[in-house]
Write a structure and sequence with these properties.
By secondary structure, this protein is an alpha+beta fold. 24% of the residues lie in helices and 20% in strands. It is globular. The two termini are 23 Å apart.
């Protein structure tokens, strides 16, 4: 069920539990700002999730409250993950679902990295 991206951060969400090591994940990257891991329900041959280590509900929350160094570090982490997965050529898709209309299901900012095949149009016509 999509969440309201303006709600307070829920420290019992699945990504918070992954960050605390309470739920296992197949991590592919970690630095001071972010971790990346394989999605448990992949929608493409390569489907990774990149999440900030600190508690942010959405992109809006992150861009309003995170220090500049953390924003830059997170964005660099997304790029590093895509490069390390070999997705720069032939291409990949980034997706961040925000709020109910965006169909955000976990109230922790996360970026999906999809690749490994032609992905088709972004939205159904």
């Amino acid at each position: 069920m999509p969440i309201d991206a303006t709600q307070p951060y829920d420290d019992q969400n699945i990504f918070a539990k992954i960050l605390r090591g309470e739920i296992p994940s197949k991590r592919v990257y970690e630095d001071n700002f972010a971790i990346a891991f394989h999605d448990i329900n992949p929608q493409a041959p390569t489907h990774l999730l990149v999440i900030p280590k600190r508690a942010y509900v959405s992109w809006d929350d992150f861009s309003a409250r995170a220090p500049d160094a953390e924003i830059a570090g997170f964005i660099r982490a997304v790029g590093t993950v895509a490069r390390a997965a070999g997705l720069v050529e032939p291409g990949y898709r980034l997706l961040a679902n925000i709020g109910q209309d965006g169909h955000q299901e976990v109230p922790h900012l996360h970026v999906h990295v999809f690749g490994g095949r032609p992905l088709g149009p972004m939205l159904a016509r």
